[in-house]
Amino acid sequence: MIPYVATAALALLLAVAVFLLVAEWRRYLKDRMPAPPPTPEEASLDRWNAGVVMLVAGISISGALLAWWAASQFSAAANASQQALTEATQYQTVKAEQDGYVDFGARLAESYQEHTVAATQLYSEAASAWSAGQGNVALELETQARLESAQARALYPGFVCYWPFYSSAPGGRVDFNVAQEKASEAQGACTQPDQDPTALRTLGPAAVAQVEATASSDRGTAEEIVLAGALLIVAVFFMTMSYLAWRHRRAHYLAPGVVSVAAALVVCAAAAVG
Q: Contact at 8 Å (CB) between 267 and 228?
């Protein structure tokens, strides 16, 4: 709402400024003789002077409106930047935890595999001993194999979120593909109770970049509004000079003020559309 009101106000002020410039230029063409500025009593009765005073007052009000608009844009940019920082922090926290679980799982899988491979080999040796009629040896080997299996089962609950699976290769080997597990983190992240379980899907670099782009856009808009406000200050200066100047120079001072208002309107309209 503010952008459209500010743009409409500047358009109205520009129309009034052009009207006053045209009126003064026509008067100047009729009477180019040097003449001092009017006295306060004369100025109070001069409609042109009254129009310039009202124009300066309107520009001042529009400047205040632009300051409000710029402040709101800077606030929106700050909020977006804070949101981007928060989301990036949440993402990095969850990502670091999941990578830690995967790396821990990879190390644990090595220890787990040592026991599964040993158990498989011992059972194989026990079977060979049974075939050779060495029952005592076979029983001892099976006991050792069961011990290895028990140790493997004791390690298995230590896996968090990411577990190994038995390889198609024989011998009790297991697979734990670190790259594949990290690629699947976003689908089954094991987050803490106060964390967003969808953080890896919704708060990734692309999402953060989008929020940062929004912050940058809001900041750029605010800078454009500040520029428009600066142009209005320039316009007020020249219009005040036209009010105080000698009569035959009033149009010369008013013209740059009108150009400044026009430039401020263009910048303001671009900010509103953008």
A: yes
**Which helix (H) or strand (E) segment is 208 a member of?**
helix 205-244
Nearest CA-CA partner of 228 in 168, 269, 169: 269
What letter would DSSP give residue 134?
-
**Torsion angle of C-alpha atoms 31, 36, 39, 42, degrees rounded to 10:** 0
**Residues 242 and 250: beta-carbon distance below 8 Å:** yes
The neighbour count for residue 68, using CB atoms within 10 Å, is 13
Residues 44-78 pLDDT 10s: 778 888 999 999 999 999 999 999 999 999 999 99
pLDDT beyond 90 at 197:
no
Helix (H), strand (E), coil (C) string for 77-117 = HHHHHHHHHHHHHHHHHHHHHHHHHHHHHHHHHHHHHHHHH
Q: Residue 183 class from Cβ within 10 Å (0-12 exposed, 13-18 middle, 19+ buried)?
A: exposed
Give Cβ neighbours of residue 270 (< 8 Å, ≥ 6 apart): 224
CA atoms within 13 A on the CB side of 130: 10
Residue 168: what pLDDT?
59
